[in-house]
Amino acid sequence: MGLTVALDAMGGDFGPQVTVPAAVQALLHSPELKLILFGDISAITTQLTLLNKLNHPRLSIVHCDNVIANETRPSQALRHSKGSSMRMALEAVAVGDADACVSAGNTGALMALSRYVLKQLPGVERPALISEIPNRNANHTWLLDLGANVSCDADTLFQFAVMGSVVAEQTLGTSPRVALLNIGEEAIKGNDLVKRCAEMLAESPDINYIGYIEGHQLYSDKADVIVCDGFVGNVSLKTSEGVANLFIDCIKRNIGRNPFKRLIAKWLFRELFNSLQQLNPDQYNGASLLGLRGIVVKSHGSADTTALENAISQAVYEIKRQIPMKISDRLEEVLLERHY
Amino acid sequence: MGLTVALDAMGGDFGPQVTVPAAVQALLHSPELKLILFGDISAITTQLTLLNKLNHPRLSIVHCDNVIANETRPSQALRHSKGSSMRMALEAVAVGDADACVSAGNTGALMALSRYVLKQLPGVERPALISEIPNRNANHTWLLDLGANVSCDADTLFQFAVMGSVVAEQTLGTSPRVALLNIGEEAIKGNDLVKRCAEMLAESPDINYIGYIEGHQLYSDKADVIVCDGFVGNVSLKTSEGVANLFIDCIKRNIGRNPFKRLIAKWLFRELFNSLQQLNPDQYNGASLLGLRGIVVKSHGSADTTALENAISQAVYEIKRQIPMKISDRLEEVLLERHY
């Protein structure tokens, strides 16, 4: 099994300044990994020279003339994407030169191009963006969709549950508890979308569906996989970041530049700071696009070197677990069951 | 102007054990307030006797035989609500015996009964639930809808913006900055609902519309009024509670029962604790149902005495500002402008 990751070296707010050091770190930490960097060769080599890693045996560069800007609409990105670092990285996966693609570029463009270049798995209506979120008991929880689909129907939401379940099962080793995010726990609560999807999940023997959970239970370890549409998931995740930032601000204001207060705060609240770190998007970096014929990991645009390395590790993890194939197999089983 | 509040004394998780002491406190703190308690007379008098306030000159009791249970569906509540404490409190507002109703009971039932008993203001399609949320700079921010409407159209969302703007203006004294909650700041982002509503808001000269904001900006003081549908608003608010609870848990685990650590933590993080308190639903208690021909304030079911007193204060505030009349006037202006 190959372990080659195609990295869009131009993506994100900082481009090669972050992607290249992240690539070098990732190679250092995984001896079996190979990386192909897609982007402006002079910008990439400048960074590699600075790091004294110009001739790394497991790193190659493919020059690309174009970059898809952060403000480009997905439809525009599709039309004018030829030769762009993002598209060429995806094409490397499509033709088998790489086993996964990682990009910190424009999310909408990445989703549109991924669908166009890699295509969906059979039976998948829409790919979904999934990520791990922190958890009160330091266990794993996955939330999807995080914004790939601003409006969904019940079938799509059901597929998200199946795909999320497959991903979680790979880590947990048991059948994950799947819940729908809703505005109440009782069956009567919610909109038509969640109610219809709840019925489908309750009928499906392959999914360990545990019912609705509410926003305040996201981090409570009540469910392993939490399913919602992309609008709700995106708002919910970003709201969490907003609250975490509110606290970080508060702490900073309280401690100020006083080194004594800093020391005491660190002693007293090591665990609190870890939690705040966990809710920092850079830490849970590496949201995966599920449902495609290939592995695509989206990094935060603002990711730093460590965060982008996390996204690369996420891609390696998915390559090793053959996530797309497992999703495809499971969907086939579930859909067969639903129809016969 | 009267200042009479009808209190559903049976609502909430604790009923008269919380509502009666809250009523007594509210009377103590506002010398102009009169309260009518609706509920089981023996349960209410038991509590009043404990507090030695059996014959308070500004407190009266109306006995009700029924209570609407928390798990009752809105449709069921409507059919079987006669003689219930919630309905009788609302009827007191409808006939002019009280100027506002406060209940910590079943939210769905309260909304359904409010619409049935009080009716909507002319031109209002659907009432919305609004509440203040904390803010980085300790200013005011309002979020609506918090769950009254699980699905909305653009006209409804537009009306929420108008109603929220009226409420905020009463406190701020200036034209409030109104934003739509979305999954991106750029005009191309979001679902059809927010895009259509954004167009309507941008065209409206009466609303100081500032564009989209994202979940992480909810508490950032970028907008005074943040508008979204009830599903998104509810998930977002509850997610915030979830994150706050995650931190509170962490702090508790860190400090444990060590009194020395407690003392230092209080000294170091007074402001942080205040923020956590602010995100505690009991503190921002008192969500108002806007768009009705009367004032209805919904308290959290789990509210304690102080929190329920906050909800009563919120009702008093709205009576003094004549919020329903001001909403009605503003809506008439805005709708006239849109149609001519």
From TrEMBL, chains A, B:
Keyword Transferase in the entry? The reply is yes
Subunit description: Homodimer. Probably interacts with PlsY.
Pathway terms, separated by semicolons: Lipid metabolism; phospholipid metabolism
Q: What is this protein called?
A: Phosphate acyltransferase
Query: What keywords is this UniProt entry annotated with?
Result: Acyltransferase, Cytoplasm, Lipid biosynthesis, Lipid metabolism, Phospholipid biosynthesis, Phospholipid metabolism, Transferase
Tell me, in one coarse class, where this protein mainly resides.
Answer: cytoplasm
Homology family: Belongs to the PlsX family.
Q: Which GO terms describe its cellular component?
A: cytoplasm
What's the top EC group for this one? transferase
Species of the source: Photobacterium iliopiscarium
Query: Which superkingdom?
Result: Bacteria
GO terms, biological process = fatty acid biosynthetic process; phospholipid biosynthetic process
What's its catalytic activity? a fatty acyl-[ACP] + phosphate = an acyl phosphate + holo-[ACP]
